[in-house]
Amino acid sequence: MTNIMKTYFHGVTVSVLLAGASLAWGDDAHVSGEVLVQYAPGVTGAVQNALPPGYAMHEILPGLAAVSVNRDRPLAEVIAELRARPGVTHVQPNYIKRIQQRPDNLRFDVQWGMDNQGQLIPEGNNQFVRGVPDADVDAPEAWDMTTGDRNILIAVIDTGVDLRHPDLSPNLWQNPGEVPNGVDSDANGYIDDVNGWDFAQNDNFPDDGNGHGTYMSSVIGARGHNAIQVAGLNWQVSLMVLRAFDSQGVSKTSTIVAAIRYAVDNGAHVINASYGAMGGANQGAMAFDQLEYEAYDYARQNGVLVVAAACNQGSDNDQSDSCVPASYDLDNIIAVAATDQSDRLAAFSNYGSNSVDLAAPGVNIAASLWKNYDVGTVTILDGTSIASAFVSGAAGLVLARARELGKTLTVAGLRDLILDNVDALPNELGGRVATAGRLNAANAVAAVEAVQNTQQNDNGGASGPGKQPGNSGGGAWGWAGLALLLMLVGVRAARAGHL
């Protein structure tokens, strides 16, 4: 008998303090007694350290520092004084971000988001609802073409991953330049970063202390056809584990920015950002975070696709309470809303015909259970967080298929393949998301066949999304390879016996 645990993950939500709002210490939207200072390129360490009395600096990244100050000084005064310092280009609070979750227990034995056959699906409190056939991403049809590729690298910026989980450990990224010997073997600034990095604790063991990151990773890349818990969209993939949120589901700008830079610099093709920041009614027009925006723009400049949750307040992101990073005006970001087993927009999901790109399954979703390796036990999730993981997983399959066919994709080409091949749902999603559709992974994978190897990246050079794992620079994603035909037998067996 399958055991089910249900967890509600209505995204990662944060209220942020904005320019024009009242700036004061004690607001739980940002770290008290600390601000972030960005310096112009070329500014020396001596200039950066030449701070007025009462300030202390800690470098986060080259050109970015966290500056501590006595809380007796008003925050607005601190920001104004530091902005006037030589070489300073930007000063802002170090915003705090939090995951929201509520646990419950239910029975559930199918992954309707992958393959919806109209089965009964538990809603909670011993209530069940019947799904609508084909209200899914057509994962089995996609698996007939590809089940993924270990050369595809997806960075998961989250609470970490259960590194010992048998359904996930085979698909963890292995840093090709790192040897776990107490030395920074690949000279990237991180010692023994074999699977990624724990930016929350600043160590090389990004194990999940919360569960959220494990659940996201399982939808993206839980090992398929192994009789353990669930199958991810990618049966083979490399999951780069970047723990930016602590065990309480809390993070801040400086931590997330460092994780984004690491993902880009170490070869990620896709970043899954299953979190979001909302601007409050008294906090300005939108939850804009300049340093986070610049980090995701750095990802854009390096051809990395970003998939972000649209947030879970049931509100319109086209209006004042925009959700970031999903609403950042960057063409490498895909913003994702959530739908249920009947192809209806989830009641909690944010939307926006101009600010949200598409929807994906995000209600009653089965995922690998954190810290529990019982082969018959899964957890059930709701939220735009999990919907984003579906899209990141689909991006991985598209890239895997492109590699098998020797096709070259750019980040724009990858984004278009996903958005141009949704299942159209004009009655439910028209006016709600830009494509008026829900993710269809099989359609996107199939469309790779027609891609011509003539795409150029946004900077004018032939390039693919991100860098190949282990490379120090970009380059053409013009792979030649064989389709994994032997996997088709496994797909059929999994469809017959796994769910």
Give structural notes:
By secondary structure, the chain is of the alpha/beta class. The chain has two domains: 3-12 and 100-494, Peptidase S8/S53 domain (Rossmann fold, 3-Layer(aba) Sandwich); 24-95, Alpha-Beta Plaits (2-Layer Sandwich), CATH 3.30.70. It has helices at residues 45-49, 75-83, 139-143, 212-221, 253-265, 290-301, 384-405, 411-419, 426-429, 441-446, 487-497, and strands at residues 3-13, 30-39, 55-61, 64-69, 88-105, 120-124, 127-130, 148-158, 196-198, 236-243, 250-252, 270-273, 277-278, 305-309, 323-324, 333-339, 358-361, 365-368, 377-382, 423-424, 437-438. Strands 1, 2, 3, 4, 5, 11, 18 and 19 form an eight-stranded mixed β-sheet that branches. A seven-stranded parallel β-sheet has the order 9-10-8-12-14-16-17, with helices on both faces. A two-stranded antiparallel ribbon has the order 6-7. A hairpin with a 2-residue loop joins strand 3 and strand 4 (64-69). Helix 4 runs parallel beside helix 7 and helix 7 crosses helix 8. It is globular and about 65 Å long. Mean pLDDT is 80; it is low at 1-22, 100-108, 281-286 and 455-499.
Please sum up the structure shown.
By secondary structure, the chain is α/β, with parallel strands linked by helices.
